[in-house]
Design goal:
The protein has 446 residues and is mainly β. Helices cover 4% and strands 41% of the residues. The chain is built from 3 helices and 30 strands. The chain starts with a strand and ends with a strand.
Length: 446
């Protein structure tokens, strides 16, 4: 059998020991990651050869191979928090709300809003509408200050203003209410989904005098608010540190090999019982060209596969030929599937061919009953001729010749006649004639 390969691998990773990724626990051997969006996958082997050399011209005399390596590389089109954590050894923090005695897990994110300067209550303000804020909670603290920058008509920074203090953030439609802060979460502005937020703009010159308009700023200008927001549910943080690296996994990669003789695609699977993901990675971000891909480079180490504990291997390749099990005849609505199963072909069933049965019967065994019609029944009849006095005389003992009852007047030598063999039809052997036939019902192809 010769085969060709032109298909990508779908890869599954199973940890060799129990691991926690984010707030999810995985047992040893439990699938952690499925890669079914790969672009390319390669399995590359390499070895080092050293030679004994000598004699005139110092030719190579004997070679020794060693230091064999096997590397499996998968280039994935997409990335997830779990796959990046496995690739880089990073930890995953998932945001969540407080529940019972379990405190909330918060993710803080940098955010900018481009707003329009308005005149309000004798000062200049920037309004953050609810649809722009989209439910985000603002944070104002020494670690998370809020800054405003006036932009020019091209969107470039023009005037840098002072930090917006906690007392300079207001809520309500008229910017008359100083924002309240959550005492249990220092710096977090208490906001409802429908609350409008206002930022009062200050001069970069301190002390700021109440009501003083920042120089060079007027209503209608565009101002960029630089701040931080806090998130819980739906937020994740991937933390890359210097101490953790990618781990070891049991890896299975499924692909297809095409048989040259039949054109059939055969399932094939590469198994790497102990693969170490290299912790090298590159993120390429560009606004043109092909999108970034993410490469997993895996070093294979000798280990036992799940079902063979006698020999360690670096990798195993399995090819499964589904045609060995026979054709799938489950759908009986298809013509030719009736009274057939996966172990039967047009010649017969089981070992009938090797354990007897004439070649003629093998060639003529048919399973589509719809093509046969009954032509009649034949009987071998024996008649007693009687016993004469003192021996055999007129009307003495004997048998009559075979007679054909309820069947065609005579058999046609050009027609093949069949008999039932269980649920199957078999060419009668020998073929019946008017003078020689067996008891039973005969059929012909309709």
């Amino acid at each position: 059998m010769r085969m060709g390969v032109r298909e990508i691998c779908d890869v599954v990773f199973r940890p060799l020991t129990a691991v926690d990724i984010g707030n999810q626990h995985f047992d040893a051997g439990q699938p952690v990651l499925y890669l079914d969006t790969a672009k390319t996958s390669t399995l590359e082997g390499a070895a080092t050869t050293v030679y004994a050399q000598g004699g005139k011209g110092n030719p190579r005399l004997i070679g020794w191979d060693g230091e064999k390596t096997l590397t499996f590389t998968v280039e994935d089109a997409l990335i997830s928090a779990v796959s990046f954590s496995m690739l880089s050894g990073a930890g995953i923090v998932k945001g969540r709300k407080a529940e019972g005695d379990t405190p909330a897990t918060k993710i803080y994110a940098h955010q900018t809003y481009d707003l329009v300067v308005e005149t309000k209550n004798g000062g200049l303000y920037a309004q953050l509408p609810t649809d722009v804020r989209n439910g985000a909670t603002l944070v104002v603290s020494r670690e998370a200050p809020v800054y405003a920058t006036v932009l020019d008509s091209a969107g470039a920074p023009r005037t840098f203003l002072s930090a917006v203090t906690m007392k300079e953030i207001f809520t309500g439609n008229d910017a008359s209410t100083v924002a309240e802060y959550d005492p249990a979460a220092p710096g977090e502005v208490k906001l409802e989904a429908e609350d409008v937020v206002w930022f009062k703009l200050s001069s970069s010159e301190r002390p700021y005098t109440e009501g003083t308009v920042p120089p060079g700023v007027k209503a209608g200008n565009t101002v960029r608010i630089d701040c931080y927001t806090v998130h819980t549910e739906g937020a994740q943080e991937i933390q890359i540190d210097a101490e953790n690296f990618a781990g070891y996994y049991y890896i299975e990669a499924d692909t297809l090999f095409r048989d040259e003789a039949t054109g059939q695609d055969l399932p094939a699977q590469f198994i790497i019982p102990r693969g170490k993901i290299q912790s090298n990675f590159t993120f390429t971000m560009a606004n043109s060209g092909d999108p970034s891909t993410f490469t997993f480079t895996i070093d294979a180490f000798p280990a036992y596969t799940k079902f063979n504990k006698r020999k360690k291997v670096m990798a195993a390749l399995q090819i499964i030929d589904p045609t060995v099990a026979g054709h799938n005849y489950e759908d009986k609505s298809i013509i030719g599937h009736k009274e057939r199963n996966a172990g039967v072909d047009i010649y017969g069933e089981g070992n009938e061919y090797t354990e007897g049965g004439s070649d003629q019967a093998k060639r003529n065994r048919i399973y589509d009953t719809s093509i046969f019609e009954e032509v009649g029944t034949s009987n071998n009849q024996q008649q007693d001729g009687g016993t004469g006095d003192g021996g055999t005389g007129e009307g003495g003992s004997g048998t009559t010749t075979d007679t054909y009852v309820d069947a065609p007047a005579e058999f046609n030598a050009d027609t093949i006649y069949y008999v039932k063999d269980g649920d199957n039809y078999v060419a009668a052997d020998p073929q019946p004639t008017a003078d020689n036939f067996s008891e039973g019902t005969y059929f012909i192809k309709g």
